[in-house]
Write a structure and sequence with these properties.
349 residues; alpha/beta; Rossmann fold; Zinc Finger, Delta Prime, domain 3; 17 helices; 8% strand
Length: 349
């Protein structure tokens, strides 16, 4: 069962008596839990009707005893049970004679009316390394007929989600900003949602979100911060460039690696300009033929750099990064000073 199918079932007001949530994705899981509670538990009984258990702390028998007990204050109840994988038998023990499995099997034959139990396992993934654990989890919870799978978002789904969330927030973004955000956050939907909310509060409706904004709020996004540095340099914005360099320093970035990314960005943009390339798709196709990996957001970055720098400035930037690389290898006083000198040189009027 997909999360969307679960939502349809939950909204109908007639959910199944038990569900098993599996998979690491937390954004859709949160929506599913909230929808079940809102649709199944009227507001006046929501506090009394909702129970939470953690199978790191309680037994299966405790959970099922709670489910079987009738409440004087709530005619309908929802039990959210986390860490479901903790109930799995240790070692090679069989499920058939496991008391927890037998108790679950007995309850499934005659579940308590008006009670919904959600067993939740978020620690076991769909990766091949966890396949054996996942198979054991499914086998143990076989009495639970409805299994909802929470797969991680693909890059396309994450980008679509980011666009939808930004639109709902009334957030405007510069080209490539949302792709960079998704890439920086590893397409984690929950983090994307949180960061867009932060960006909405940070920027509001005053202007479009820039890569510098993403770098400021997500300083661990190294590649995004470096590309924001390229953008600031291309505008001749010395103050923003130095601020972004400070972000990299505070994050403990190895500055020669940051310089390598800068140099590569300038070289790719110059090569694309020399080839007379005009579109992002042409950039992807051209470098793919040369065996250089070029995903859409990276092609967009190269395109923007090419548009921001004329040929002369690109050649000067490449020469400057070469000299900075030499300075790293010499007995320079400090890597940070070398990078600051580079930024000052590239942003001179």
């Amino acid at each position: 069962m997909t999360p969307q199918q679960f939502l349809t079932e939950a909204k109908s007001g007639n959910p199944a008596p038990m569900y098993l949530f599996v998979g690491p994705e937390s954004y859709r899981r949160r929506i599913c839990r909230r929808t079940l509670i809102e649709k199944f538990l009227p507001e006046e009984i929501r506090e009394e009707g909702l129970s939470r258990h953690d199978m790191d702390e309680v037994t299966m028998r405790d959970v099922l005893d709670d489910a079987s007990s009738f409440s004087l204050f709530a005619s309908q109840r929802v039990l959210l049970v986390s860490s479901a994988e903790h109930v799995l038998p240790k070692g090679n023990a069989k499920e058939d004679d496991n008391p927890n499995f037998l108790a679950l099997q007995d309850y499934a034959k005659n579940p308590t009316p008006g009670v919904v139990i959600v067993f939740d396992s978020q620690r076991i993934t769909f990766d091949s390394d966890d396949k054996t654990k996942l198979d054991r989890l499914r086998k143990f919870f076989a009495p639970v007929r409805q299994v909802v799978e929470f797969h991680p978002y693909s890059s396309e789904d994450a980008r679509r989600l980011a666009g939808d969330l930004a639109q709902r927030s009334g957030l405007k973004t510069e080209p490539g900003a949302l792709e960079a955000l998704c890439e920086a956050l590893g397409n984690d939907a929950a983090r994307i949602s949180s960061e867009i909310e932060k960006l909405s509060l940070f920027v509001g409706n005053t202007r479009a979100v820039r890569l510098e904004d993403i770098a400021s709020l997500s300083p661990d996004a190294r590649e995004t911060t470096i590309f924001a540095l390229v953008n600031a340099i291309s505008r001749g914005d010395r103050r923003a460039s130095l601020d972004l360099l400070e972000t990299l320093v505070r994050a403990g970035e190895y500055l020669p690696l940051a310089l390598s990314f800068l140099a590569t960005q300038f070289r790719l943009a110059l090569a694309a300009r020399d080839e007379g390339i005009r579109t992002q798709q042409q950039i992807q196709g051209h470098f793919a033929k040369l065996g250089i990996g070029m995903w859409p957001s990276r092609a967009q970055q190269v395109m923007q750099t090419m548009q921001s720098f004329d040929k002369k400035r690109l050649e000067e930037a490449i020469a400057a990064t070469y000299q900075a690389d030499k300075a790293f290898r010499d007995r320079s006083p400090d890597d940070r000073i070398v990078m600051e000198d580079l930024v000052l040189q590239l942003t001179r009027k």
